[in-house]
């Protein structure tokens, strides 16, 4: 979807890697994350400071093979026993408020780890009664796009992973720099370079950053340097872009246009309900902006119980609300597809009537 | 160590990736491994056929973020229950003959998986008495460089992972094309590009290949395309190289030179024993060659009980035999360091006398 932008930027975001460069596992510097390229760390800090979406002061950066790997690394860091402590007797519960990202349960449970296990809805969890937990706070939320905070009752003995993949100005107003113990970001959702598989975590506690680094060492012995160097180049191109070719200006306009087309397509159609967002002041754009999420969280009204099946009859692919822990009357649809596919979707959606 | 070779090859192994290319998660084609780039798969097959070290006919290729990730993916594939079966009641034992690669135990156990657990030495394992198992067969073996086969007694109900990272003509004679159910290879050890984090598995059973792909999907949602494209370019440069600039000829000579220097350095020194390899016919070079492993497996003789500590006093870094499941009289030392570090090592080793 952002491909057209990157074509316009031409060589400024291109990278050449000679055959004899970047061969060794190790990177320079005295960082906790021993396989992280300094160039990437610098560009991450620079972009966050420019956008104002995260405090980087006093944070350790850990790079991962996408934010998925960092999510697993964070579960490991919060649940693995310290050498000086006795072993964790019970796997810690991993929870998130409904509707939650559909991959969280399977990512948490596929290894059948004795360290952590999926615990479901965070709203009904009580930290005092139900024991230690790791709460996943995704904000803006995937699938529904709403801004979120922790919801667990009695949360003093919990750990928190803030998944901020969509906390960028093209998707939501940047109201303040996020300032959490552990936040995750990814190139995939910020600039569109999903295939590069680069994510990063901002981590307060050096012990947690060390354990995450250890996880990645045991999991994949580091993170592709080619991808790290490419990610650094791309983030640099975003930060370097002058006002008229600014990435976030372009991507904001594309998202705004798509949401406008979407709202027009279902306007007055009693079959569908879209989420209703309030505008907020965006410190990056220095004006009020509307949330325009990367996903559409659509509700089928009336007698349609299985919204995904209903849409499939009209050749629209979606993921059922059941996968996100809620009713099949809801579906999630990507707003980041190619122009052609998005126009097909709008056309098909507009043609559906009772 | 192979950097000088790649400098000589210049642009033939360099890659340029424009900012707008390789953005999507998906790759083309109808392969089981949906995130694998066709170019890489083609070059993997081409190189194996050229070198003659592996049968590729009737194999599914699965690409991984280094062979570490593929090792974990294979454990998952062999131990995760099929949808139609009841759940595995007990974690399956993961075993390997002594001395085994020092990271196998921690890589197997760090997640405390309920699917598999480290089971130690394969020599003392009895498949009938001790139950189902996954045997890791590393050949040539890390740390000692010897050629290996399965050693478990009553092995009809086992699974096998053949780690063939070092089965290349610069390290060992290629006596026949390997022909196993599941073999692992890696760019790191074949061409020296460790930081690119690319490995591949050759897998007979499509169900196993599918489960490995699923593991990588849940672990890192695929493998960096930048790295895959670079790996394809590098493997192509190896296959394309004419006789006088052939990669394996160059790397064989470098290894031969190092092993010669090493043997001279300890000759007549009763303190140390090196492994003793027999030459074998190499179908790739079409002559007899000597094994010249990527690691030196050194034994301290006489009263030296802790060889690693002893060497440390002489400023030589090594990994103790204890880490590989055997006596601390043994150590492993890398033979793949930079020229400068290797020469320092040889000098320090030569100067040690009783």
Overview of this structure, please?
Chains A, B: GO terms for molecular function: L-tryptophan:pyruvate aminotransferase activity. Chains A, B: This is Tryptophan aminotransferase- protein 2. Chains A, B: Its EC number is 2.6.1.99. Chains A, B: Belongs to the alliinase family. Chains A, B: Keywords: Aminotransferase, Pyridoxal phosphate, Transferase. By secondary structure, chain A is α/β, with parallel strands linked by helices. Chain A has two domains: 238 residues, Aspartate Aminotransferase, domain 2 (3-Layer(aba) Sandwich); 106 residues, Aspartate Aminotransferase, domain 1 (Alpha-Beta Complex). Chain A is built from ten helices and 14 strands. In chain A, the strands form three sheets. In chain A, strands 2-8-7-6-5-3-4 form a seven-stranded mixed sheet. The first copy, chain A, has a four-stranded antiparallel sheet with strand order 9-12-14-13, with no helix packed on it. In chain A, strands 10-11 form a two-stranded antiparallel sheet. In chain A, strand 3, helix 4 and strand 4 form a beta-alpha-beta unit. In chain A, helix 2 runs parallel beside helix 7. The longest helix of chain A is centred in the last third of the chain and has 20 residues. The model of chain A has no long low-confidence stretch (mean pLDDT 94). Chains A and B meet through helix 1, strand 1, helix 3, helix 6 and helix 7 of A and helix 1, strand 1, helix 3, helix 6 and helix 7 of B.
Assembly status:
homodimer
CATH superfamily of the largest domain in chain A, by name, is Type I PLP-dependent aspartate aminotransferase-like (Major domain)
Largest sheet of chain A, in brief, is: 7 strands, mixed
Q: Which structural class should the secondary elements of chain A be placed in?
A: alpha/beta
Number of strands of chain A: 14
From the alpha carbons, calculate the radius of gyration of chain A and give it in angstroms: 21 Å
Spans of chain A of at least 5 consecutive residues whose pLDDT stays below 50 are none
Give the CATH level 1 class of the largest domain in chain A: Alpha Beta
CATH topology of the largest domain in chain A: Aspartate Aminotransferase, domain 2
- N-to-C CA distance of chain A: 32 Å
Keywords (chains A, B): Aminotransferase, Pyridoxal phosphate, Transferase
Cofactor (chains A, B): pyridoxal 5'-phosphate
Family (chains A, B): Belongs to the alliinase family.
Domain Alliinase C-terminal (chains A, B): 1-352
């Amino acid at each position: 979807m952002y491909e057209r932008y990157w074509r316009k930027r031409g060589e400024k975001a291109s990278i050449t890697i000679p055959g004899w460069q970047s061969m060794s596992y190790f990177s320079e510097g005295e960082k906790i994350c021993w396989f992280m390229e300094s160039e990437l760390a610098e560009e991450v800090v620079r972009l966050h400071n420019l956008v104002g979406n995260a405090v980087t002061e006093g944070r350790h950066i850990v790079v991962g093979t996408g934010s998925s790997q960092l999510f697993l690394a964070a579960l490991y860091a919060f649940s693995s026993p310290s050498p000086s402590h006795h072993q964790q007797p019970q796997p810690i519960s991993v929870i998130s408020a409904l509707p939650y990202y559909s991959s969280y349960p399977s990512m948490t449970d596929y290894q059948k780890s004795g360290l952590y296990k999926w615990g479901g809805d965070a709203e009904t969890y009580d930290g005092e009664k139900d024991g230690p937990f790791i709460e996943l706070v995704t904000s803006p939320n995937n699938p529904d796009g709403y801004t979120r905070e922790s919801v667990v009752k009695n949360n003093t003995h919990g750990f928190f992973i803030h998944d901020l993949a969509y906390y960028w100005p093209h998707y939501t107003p940047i109201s303040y720099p996020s300032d959490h113990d552990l936040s995750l970001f990814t190139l995939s959702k910020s600039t569109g370079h999903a295939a590069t598989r680069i994510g990063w975590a901002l981590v307060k506690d050096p012990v947690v950053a060390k354990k995450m680094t250890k996880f990645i060492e045991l999991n994949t012995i580091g993170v592709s340097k080619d991808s790290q160097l490419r990610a650094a180049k791309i983030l640099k191109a975003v930060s370097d872009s002058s006002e008229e070719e600014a990435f976030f200006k372009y991507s904001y306009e594309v998202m705004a246009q798509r949401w406008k087309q979407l709202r027009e397509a279902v306007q007055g159609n009693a079959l569908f309900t879209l989420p209703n967002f309030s505008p907020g002041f965006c410190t990056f754009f220095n004006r009020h902006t509307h949330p325009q999420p990367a996903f559409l969280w659509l509700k089928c009204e009336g007698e349609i119980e299985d919204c995904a099946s209903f849409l499939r009859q009209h050749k629209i692919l979606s993921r059922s609300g059941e996968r996100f822990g809620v009713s099949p009357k809801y579906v999630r649809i990507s707003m980041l597809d190619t122009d052609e596919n998005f126009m097909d979707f709008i056309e098909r959606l507009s043609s559906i009537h009772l």
